[in-house]
Design goal:
The chain has about 500 residues and is an alpha/beta fold. About 50% of the residues lie in helices and about 10% in strands. The structure holds 6-O-phosphono-beta-D-fructofuranose.
Length: about 500
């Protein structure tokens, strides 16, 4: 069956629902706020301001059921080869949960537990070595998750070591990170699943030379041989495995920067939060399953309402990196046009994910969200109990969070076109009790599972990323031309290189 045929009942529902304003959908269904909400552990999620009604939701749940969401999740958790194009499992759940009963999942779980013992020892060794700063060198999945978690969860007063991140190959990035650090009191973590990523290797060389010796050099990789060739002593290499995708790897020893910043117990509590979400997602039927609900809502917005972008708006400054993290998780996973069998998907897949932290963003791009011609569905994330003083600020923050979601949904009429707010702009509201490691773990696991279920609807592989290879290959070919040692084949690139050389 074509995906378009599969989704056509949704388009029929959308044509009907769009006759009624979102404000009226809410007003006409007094139980909607209660019934369109779910709580899982520390997360309350409300879908009451999505632009669907009970009839459309039924069609969405029927879609999830007809696609055997339950069985597909079971296959994921069991370690079946869900990464079809690379013929391997995607067993990130085994890094934190042992729910499946399948042999492979159980043995992966045991291996991961063992690796955490080594990880705890490395944390202790670094913290007790007189090191004050750690630079984590990695990019993409070897950077964004730990960077988010460290930024969200560590407090300058409690951190036992300061953790810095270096990802961009731009030498200014290295210069900036190293400027205030003392090489004799700094350790470097080289984080790369492949240990073949150019950016990480170049920055790794910078760090190795800057440190002067290898006694404070650590590696986290699935390719121990390459790390050793690079000069990382093997006894200071923590393992990764090919059954964990890069962007799903923060639960492994890739999370070492998190454990350094918040302690190993804090890191394990993040795993427990993810595990709680895993258990919910693995066990609950589609209509009570938060990941299924979130995924089906994404499909509704993309394929029934034709909305081409999705904003994520954390109303907590500590979560300001959540949009960056989700950009890789969602867009590298779902930015595909080919079905599992290689045929064309034939419908739109991932929208553009973007966003930023409120209330700052209210003063940058919110104007367009309220009155622009493009409707952008939003995921709001609020945190109810703050960890900071300044109670008045937090009350103001929460009032803005609630106000924006209300304004997007309801709008406000005016005879003056410039002062008219159309409303009808959908959003999901996530409220976390508090921003604990446990809650962050649960939130991230939720997004991971939602991404997987969206991939099931579109019949695409959420676990490969061949799209990023071409640019890397061309850059490798062009490096000699940039150095003036060769000519480029492409005429435009050749002209640009001539400009560069005249500007040097
Ligand atoms: O951990 P590695 O192997 O250095 O890869 C870094 C990142 O590069 C990618 O392969 C492409 O962006 C990501 O999927 C991965 O997270």
């Amino acid at each position: 069956m074509s995906i378009a045929d599969r989704l056509s009942p949704l388009r029929a529902e959308a044509a009907r629902v769009m006759q009624t304003s979102l404000r009226t959908l809410v007003a006409d269904d007094p139980d909607r706020a209660r019934d369109f909400a779910l709580r899982v552990g520390p997360i309350h999620a409300s879908f009451a301001r999505q632009r669907y009604d009970r009839g459309a939701l039924e069609a969405l749940f029927a879609l999830g059921e007809s696609l055997d969401f339950d069985a597909r999740l079971e296959a994921l958790f069991a370690g079946e080869h869900v990464n079809v194009t690379e013929a391997r499992p995607a067993l990130h759940t085994a890094l934190r949960s042992d729910l499946s009963g399948a042999e492979l999942a159980a043995s992966s779980h045991a291996v991961a537990r063992e690796a955490r013992v080594a990880m705890r020892a490395v944390v202790e060794a670094i913290v007790n070595s007189g090191v004050t700063d750690v630079v984590s060198v990695g990019i993409g999945g070897s950077d964004l998750g730990p960077r988010l978690a460290v930024d969200a969860l560590s407090s300058p007063s409690s951190a036992r070591v300061r953790v810095h991140f270096l990802s961009n190959v731009d030498g200014h990035a290295a210069q900036r990170v190293l400027a205030s650090l003392d090489p004799s009191r700094t350790a470097a973590l080289l984080v790369s699943k492949s240990f073949g990523t150019q950016e990480t290797l170049l920055n790794g060389c910078v760090l190795r030379d800057w440190l002067g010796d290898d006694t404070r050099l650590y590696g986290i990789t699935a390719n121990i041989e390459r790390a050793a060739q690079f000069g990382v002593p093997v006894e200071r290499v923590l393992p990764m495995w090919d059954w964990v995708g890069g962007r799903y790897s923060m639960w492994s020893s890739v999370g070492l920067p998190i454990a350094l910043a918040i302690g190993m117990d804090g890191f394990e509590s993040m795993l427990e939060g993810a595990c709680e979400m895993d258990a919910h997602v693995a066990r609950e039927p589609v209509r009570r399953n938060l990941a299924a609900w979130h995924a089906l809502t994404a499909v509704w917005n993309r394929n029934a309402l034709d909305l081409a972008s999705q904003a994520v708006l954390p109303y907590d400054d500590r979560l300001r990196l959540l949009p960056n993290y989700l950009q890789q998780l969602v867009m590298e996973s779902l930015g595909k046009s080919a079905r599992m069998d290689g045929s064309a998907v034939g419908v739109d897949t991932v929208p553009v994910w973007w966003g930023g932290a409120g209330t700052d963003t209210q003063h940058s791009f919110f104007q367009a969200l309220h009155q622009g011609t493009t409707v952008v569905p939003c995921d709001f994330v609020g945190v109810v109990q703050p960890d900071a003083p300044h109670r008045d600020n937090h009350d103001a923050l929460l009032s803005h969070l609630l106000a924006q979601s209300e304004a997007f949904a309801n709008g406000q009429n005016s005879d003056d076109a410039h002062r008219h707010y159309p409303g009808g702009r959908p959003s999901t509201m996530f409220l976390l009790d508090a921003l604990t490691p446990h809650a962050l773990g649960a939130l991230i696991a939720l997004y991971e599972h939602s991404v997987f279920l969206q991939s099931v609807v579109w019949d695409i592989n959420a676990f490969d990323q061949f799209g990023v290879e071409l640019g890397k290959q061309i850059a490798n070919r062009l490096l000699p031309a940039v150095r003036g040692e060769a000519m480029a084949d492409d005429p435009v690139t050749r002209a640009l290189l001539a400009e560069i050389s005249s500007m040097r």
